[in-house]
């Protein structure tokens, strides 16, 4: 899976492997090096789409400067044991992370050493830097599926398991000349796919790593996803006709069953991209998805076949999976737009 990777997470794990996902901010902004700062915690916001800090620290000449620091989302961290209770405004803290290549005094944080001596790691798989153990090291993100009530079928909450082989996006696609040029011109530092709290459309939204839930409403099935509180509506009526309906970010979806597999066809999509790498999406894009729970109820396998004559010279197939873990819920996302550092 060619996921959008945040280099700070990768470096924190010691290897360049797809451990954590963050498509709100391109990893291209951040350097692969690690820097440390020490200073006064001015503000902390434990929120989506990113946990945010402001820290006043002295530069090499002793001049005070304010660092704008972000980290993984609340939706990532609340499935670890990381909490903000050890961080108080006015405390002197240390922060280690990857500096921005675009903005001075900006960082993607991995490790924080609080004033009380406790270390906090800000993402699953990140190793402690200053202490033997760190708050935030416990996580459900690497747990596999648990056998479930088989009669529930697809209608339950499904979760992502990090470090799974394969994944949704590909590095190479059979692109048309026009699409190849558009992707080459895409600049992840300036051409943001989903800046701030602006929702993502299909098919990009299907990369989201947070829990999702299928809800049976009779003639419709709702697919509730935590990211941006997204809800996809799948029309299950046999005579459903969506061709005359206005386009939307998520498109218009029709579904039917083949045994235990839910097959969903989506057209009428008003979203410019396929994935975070800038692959364009044409106006006639059609997506066929297959959601198939395993017989023991532990896993939901997924394939997505996309036919888009403006973008691809042949249909492409993408795949990923989710697992069932007891106790998971789709929680409110409550996205908050980032604010500027004090004094800027």
Q: Quick one: overall form?
A: globular
Average pLDDT works out at 88
Helical run tally: 3
* Number of E-type strands: 15
Oligomeric organization of the protein chains: single chain
Order of helices and strands: HEEEHEEEEHEEEEEEEE
Give an overview in words:
By secondary structure, the protein is mainly beta. The protein has two domains: 115 residues, OB fold (Dihydrolipoamide Acetyltransferase, E2P), CATH 2.40.50.140; 174 residues, Beta Barrel (Lipocalin), CATH 2.40.128. A nine-stranded mixed beta sheet has the order 7-8-9-10-11-12-13-14-15, with no helix packed on it. It has a five-stranded mixed beta barrel with strand order 1-2-3-5-4. Strand 9 and strand 10 form a beta hairpin. It starts with 6 loop residues before the first helix and ends in a 21-residue tail after the last strand. The N terminus is likely disordered.
């Amino acid at each position: 899976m060619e996921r959008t990777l945040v280099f700070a997470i990768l470096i924190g794990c010691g290897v360049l492997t797809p451990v954590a996902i963050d498509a709100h901010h391109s990893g291209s902004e951040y350097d692969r090096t690690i820097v440390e700062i020490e200073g006064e915690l001015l503000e902390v916001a434990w929120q989506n789409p990113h946990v945010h800090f402001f820290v006043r620290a002295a530069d090499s000449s002793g001049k005070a400067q304010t660092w704008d620091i972000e980290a993984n989302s609340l939706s990532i961290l609340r499935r670890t044991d990381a909490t903000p209770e050890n961080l108080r405004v006015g405390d002197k803290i240390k922060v280690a992370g990857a500096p921005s290549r675009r903005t001075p005094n900006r960082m993607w944080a991995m490790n924080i050493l609080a004033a009380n001596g406790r270390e906090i790691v800000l993402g699953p798989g990140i190793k402690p830097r200053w202490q033997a153990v760190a708050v935030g090291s416990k996580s459900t993100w690497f747990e596999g599926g648990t056998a479930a009530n088989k009669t529930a079928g697809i209608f339950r909450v499904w979760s992502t398991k990090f470090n799974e082989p394969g994944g949704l996006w590909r590095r190479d696609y059979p692109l048309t000349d026009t699409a190849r040029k558009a992707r080459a011109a895409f600049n992840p530092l300036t051409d943001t796919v989903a800046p701030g709290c602006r929702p993502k459309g299909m098919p990009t939204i299907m990369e989201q790593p947070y829990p999702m839930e299928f809800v049976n409403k009779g003639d419709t099935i709702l697919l509730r996803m935590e990211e941006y509180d997204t809800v996809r509506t799948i029309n299950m009526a046999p005579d459903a006709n969506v061709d005359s309906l206005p386009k939307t970010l998520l498109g218009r979806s029709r579904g039917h069953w083949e045994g235990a597999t839910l097959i969903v066809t989506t057209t009428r999509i008003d979203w410019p991209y396929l994935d975070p790498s800038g692959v364009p999406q044409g106006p006639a894009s059609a997506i066929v998805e297959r959601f198939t729970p395993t017989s023991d109820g532990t896993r939901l396998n997924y394939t997505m076949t996309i036919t888009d004559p403006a973008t691809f010279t042949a249909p492409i197939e993408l795949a990923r999976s989710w697992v069932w873990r007891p106790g998971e819920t789709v929680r409110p996302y409550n996205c908050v737009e980032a604010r500027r550092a004090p004094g800027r």
